[in-house]
């Protein structure tokens, strides 16, 4: 008897064997496989001929596996599982060749965090689009994710239990003073700081809300001399000596070299996180983007220099 060549075996033959083992008869196996009974019988006959062994005992009550048939069937099941896994991997790959990831966030995240992530994601998945919408309030971001208009949101933590959240970084607030300023000669206190000519974002801005909440704990009210929406405009006004500002450091980057950066009397930190709606069914592109974000940001944190307040 010559050597057995397992590569001559056909998947259809092994499927027939598994189907018979599951159903107990050739006729039921044929129904399960949507084949004729003669086709199933022929497949098993060829399989046994190729192997040179008997895998099934036929009888009036149906077909029963021989001891060797049970072992071969177990291996066939593992092969079927592997083939199914191969199909799943291919399907996932096809799903990652196209699609869209929708992101809601705010300007400092879009400027300083997302570009590197998107660059890596674009290299890995060139067929997937990334759409970014910027908002001034974390509530707006959360609303977009909640309503299904965004797959991923960047907001302040903590947030509500309806979201799955991942902390990205802790961004400290700093006081930025004009060049050659003598605004804060002497002790740096909240009482002195609140009397400065402050340039801040409008009341509906998320950062302004955090600043006012912080002042409220000191029982002081902040009354800016200017309210300006864009961070870059605020920094330009501070450079011109029109006032000072309190701003999250990430939002202020790159900080103009001629401005004086001063710590606040007590630390103020915004915790920036990534959120997804817990009950949402995410697509493969969204899963892939989150994986890329975590990989890129984890690598970036290894080389970041620590700052007061923590990142």
What this model shows, in words?
This protein is of the alpha/beta class and 311 residues long. It has three domains: 6-95, Arc Repressor Mutant, subunit A (Orthogonal Bundle), CATH 1.10.10.10; 100-169 and 271-303, Periplasmic binding protein-like II (D-Maltodextrin-Binding Protein, domain 2), CATH 3.40.190; 172-268, D-Maltodextrin-Binding Protein, domain 2 (3-Layer(aba) Sandwich), CATH 3.40.190.10. The protein is 45% helix and 20% strand. It has twelve helices and eleven strands. The chain has helices spanning 11-23, 26-33, 37-51, 67-95, 107-112, 114-124, 138-146, 190-193, 206-217, 231-239, 249-252, 284-303; strands spanning 56-59, 62-65, 99-105, 128-134, 152-156, 163-177, 199-200, 226-227, 245-248, 260-262, 269-277. The strands form three sheets. Strands 3, 4, 5, 6, 9, 10 and 11 form a seven-stranded mixed beta sheet that branches. A two-stranded antiparallel ribbon has the order 1-2. Strand 7 (199-200), helix 9 and strand 8 (226-227) form a beta-alpha-beta unit. Helix 1 (11-23) crosses helix 2 and helix 6 packs across helix 12. The N and C termini lie far apart (72 Å).
Q: What does this entry show, briefly?
A:
The chain has helices spanning 11-23, 26-33, 37-51, 67-95, 107-112, 114-124, 138-146, 190-193, 206-217, 231-239, 249-252, 284-303; strands at 56-59, 62-65, 99-105, 128-134, 152-156, 163-177, 199-200, 226-227, 245-248, 260-262, 269-277. It is an alpha/beta fold and 311 residues long.
């Amino acid at each position: 008897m010559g050597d057995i060549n397992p590569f001559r075996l056909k998947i259809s033959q092994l499927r027939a064997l598994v189907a018979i083992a599951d159903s107990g008869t050739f006729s039921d196996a044929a129904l399960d496989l949507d084949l004729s009974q003669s086709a199933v019988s022929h497949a098993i006959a060829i399989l046994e001929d190729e192997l040179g062994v008997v895998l099934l005992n036929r009888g009036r009550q149906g077909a029963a596996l021989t001891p060797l048939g049970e072992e071969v069937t177990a291996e066939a099941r593992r092969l079927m599982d592997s083939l199914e896994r191969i199909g799943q991997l291919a399907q996932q790959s096809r799903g990652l060749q196209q699609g869209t990831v929708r992101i809601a966030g705010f300007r400092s995240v879009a400027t300083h965090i997302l570009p590197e992530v998107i660059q890596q994601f674009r290299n890995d998945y060139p067929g997937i689009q990334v759409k970014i919408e910027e908002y001034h309030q974390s509530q707006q971001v959360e609303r977009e994710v909640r309503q299904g208009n965004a797959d991923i949101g960047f907001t302040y933590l903590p947030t509500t239990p309806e979201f799955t959240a991942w902390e990205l970084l802790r961004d400290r607030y700093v006081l930025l003073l004009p060049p050659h300023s003598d605004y804060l000669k002497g002790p740096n206190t909240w009482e002195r700081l609140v009397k400065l000519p402050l340039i801040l974002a409008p009341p509906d801005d998320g950062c302004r809300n955090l600043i006012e909440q912080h002042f409220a704990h000191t029982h002081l009210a902040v009354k800016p001399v200017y309210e300006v929406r864009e961070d870059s405009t605020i920094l330009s006004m501070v450079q011109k000596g029109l006032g000072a500002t309190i701003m999250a450091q990430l939002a202020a980057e790159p900080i103009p070299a001629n401005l004086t950066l001063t710590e606040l009397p007590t630390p103020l930190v915004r915790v920036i996180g990534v959120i997804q709606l817990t009950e949402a069914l995410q697509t493969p592109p969204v899963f892939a983007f989150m994986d890329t974000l975590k990989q890129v940001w984890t690598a970036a944190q290894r080389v970041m220099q620590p700052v007061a307040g923590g990142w």
